[in-house]
Known about the structure:
With 641 residues, this protein is of the alpha+beta class. The chain has 18 helices and 21 strands. The longest helix has 38 residues, at 12-49.
Amino acid sequence: ISNSIRQIRRTPLRTGLFLVLVSLSASLLTLGVTLYLIGEANMKRLEEVFVTVGLVSQTPDQQISDQYWDAEDKKFTTYTATVCSKTIKPDVLMFDGADYIIPPKHRPYYGAYDPDLKYPDNSYIRLIAQTRTRLKIVIVTPLEDCVPDHPVQLKLLKELYGVQGIAGREIGDWETVLFCDHDNPNPPTLYAGKTYIMTLELRPSHREWTKTHTGVDAIMGEYVPRSYHDSYVNSTQYTPDGVLIPDENPLDNGYQEVTEGFFDKPDGQRWLELVKSMDLAEHTFPVIPTDNTQLLMSFYNGNSSIVDGRDITAEEYRTGQLVCLISQQFAELNGYAVGDTLPISLYYADYSGSASRDFPPDGLPIGNPNHLLNAQGKCYDIFEQNPYTVVGIYNEINQVSYSSGYDMAGYGVVIPGASVKNSDANNILDYGPMKGYNTTFQIPNGSVEQYQSLWNAVSKTGDASHIEITIYDKGYTQIKAGLIQIKQVAVALLVSGLLVTVLILLFFCNLFIGKQKRRTAIERSLGMGKRACTISLLTGVMAIVTLGSVLGSLAGYALSGAVIGLLSALSKSVSFSTEFSTWAQAASDVAQTQLVTGMVSPLVPLICGACVLLLALTISLAQIRGNLRSEPLKLLSTPKS
């Protein structure tokens, strides 16, 4: 061993160069391996973090017009709107090559009845009931014969729905209201001494009234019947195919004369059912069925997040377990906590609207006051009733009164869609075309371009041409491309590092061993065995390689963190949609997409160094074998070249 060390020290420049080159090659090899492992680990992490979702909307293709009568201006106003001529099914999206994780489905939101439901004191439904300014079902009589094409006075006789709700109340002699059938071009005559049942809504319409009247008349306000264009007395029940079921007994106006035995007849029974339905609406909360919480855009963009408990698992969604997520305000006001049981009684399905539009996210629900009767003029019956376990409580950031439709509804309850076993076919109170908030799907990450290419090929004609798809992946496609580039660089470094290492070892092992055949012959002539000669030749080389591989591997490992820090700028500059996000969530999303560097074990540089040592040992032993195969006397008798 001492002879080997002395031999190495006799050539300091050659030895130093060998040490430097081995260190550099080991550093290059370690850097390549580390970068590749970091890229692979980040790709797996982002696969779990990211979800690629698509929003489906049917585009309007027909323009319609309607006329509204204005009693004060004495003229019709024409309104035009662009609508969908027919309802397209999501089956049009089931084309060859569409590799859905969760296929598109036109989902409703459900109305659930709870007689013990508590709203905030300042909620819309409470204010409506307390002030009787909007939803009001009353029996009245005119003070004189009149045609209500202008404000006329009506005496209130009885309130069937209002402050006391379904129980009703008798009204004092002094209470009167102003009434005008404002949107009706030919309102019927009302006669003093007769009684009428009405649906009233506060809507001051006549500007001239307050100019010409003072005192009580000026401040009592003016009521109109719920418009005959959109009367919630009438039904809009649909079939599961989106076909409107004709109302068996439609009403032309939002009021009728009450005659003897009126409430024993079909018309009167319909009004009593309407009163009952309003009580149901006052105790209704929205239920949102889905197959993945991330398909709800508010959760997808982080505007809603779990603040207590956990999310519903993929297995619970798949098997339809009776578990749910509830809003924080719902939990606090109604006394629910994680682990409690929430009874859910579903009685209507809405395939047209958004739960957050009917039940505003600010937690002051107005419910769905429209079309609460079925085609037979009856309240919808409960079609599904189950106890759900609360596994998580969420909070919605956007506490707005008027939602875009993509927020989480006030008091919204999220359940697995598969947990609803019974059909809602007889309980569909409204149906409309697919919209981004009710029709979504999930595809594999990184497949956006492929999906869009396939969709573009089939969406040129037919129903597909009236479908618009928007896909969100939070920039996963761009980030993945950056990670692939990092892995390609890593492979190039790894291959080049391995090649350089082999070449360096071949060259210097030949210098320090292959060129030392005469030295080996002398040592053998002096009585050293083959084993001792092997150790003599090997020790110096392996000492240099060991020191170089250790220094180089550690340097490569340390350098990898700095290199990834520079390459991660690729992910920082990625642009993705924050259409539904708050600024805070947008910042969080950017942070979530950053590359993580501390994901490679410190054993990696040790293994890389060990590989360099193993290569050096293999090449050295091959060179030594060549030396030992030569005859010592023959070598010594040969002149030095």
